[in-house]
From TrEMBL:
InterPro entries listed in its UniProt record: Flavoprotein-like_sf, FMN_Rdtase-like_dom, NAD(P)H-dep_FMN_reductase, NADPH-dep_FMN_reduc_SsuE
Superkingdom of the source species: Bacteria
Keyword Oxidoreductase: yes
Entry's transmembrane regions: none
GO molecular function: FMN reductase (NADPH) activity
Protein's UniProt name: NADPH-dependent FMN reductase
E.C. number(s) listed in UniProt: 1.5.1.38
UniProt keywords, alphabetically: Flavoprotein, FMN, Oxidoreductase
Gene (name only): ssuE
Length: 185
């Protein structure tokens, strides 16, 4: 199966975005994919700030993008756009870092007024990096993502179904098996 890099662009250690990605990572693993979680916030701030392409953490991040067959990009919405942290990473990647890759964009936000952030802010940047395919993405409202005291994630029923569908479409684009998808749905 495919290797998937699951990228969280949230600056928060308790991010709903990152938790949602880890939830979807489990679905992709159940479908036979190798999933590598990557939280941009773990990169050294000085390496991002100074665009230090020789920094070992940046070199490794670029290598992870190169090794992956598919990339899931998750970000919270800030000021109707993706996070500045994600922008810092995307700016450091080679121009065609997504060449030949299948990409799934996911966005979380506090209001439906930000739903177009996927298509008008994130998708154009991803497209400029040369992916083979950008699958339909999904915007999830913060209020539809609940984290219990024990860390268990619950997503409201409507978004759960939609997220399963876009994740499965991404998996199929990577060569996933439809019968396996139905069994984990």
């Amino acid at each position: 199966m495919a290797t998937v890099l699951s990228v969280s662009g949230s600056p928060s250690a308790t991010s709903r975005t990152a938790r949602l990605l880890r939830h979807l990572d489990a679905r992709l693993r159940a479908q036979g994919h190798e999933v590598i979680p990557f939280d941009v916030r773990t990169l050294p701030p000085e390496a991002l700030l100074h665009a230090d392409l020789a920094h070992p953490a940046i070199v490794e991040a670029i290598a992870q993008f190169e090794r992956a067959d598919g990339i899931v990009i998750g970000t919270p919405v800030y000021k109707a756009a993706y996070s500045g942290l994600l922008k810092s990473l995307l700016d450091l990647l080679p121009q065609y870092a997504l060449a030949g890759k299948t990409v799934l964009p996911l966005v979380t936000g506090g209001t439906t007024a930000h739903v177009l952030a996927i298509d008008y802010a994130l998708r154009p940047v991803l497209h400029s990096m040369g992916p083979a395919h950008i699958t339909p993405g999904w915007f999830t409202l913060d209020r539809d993502i609940t984290v219990a005291d024990d860390g268990t994630l619950t997503v409201a029923p409507g978004p759960t179904e939609a997220l399963a569908q876009v994740t499965d479409q991404f998996s199929l684009a990577l060569g996933g098996h439809p019968t396996l998808l139905a069994a984990t749905g």
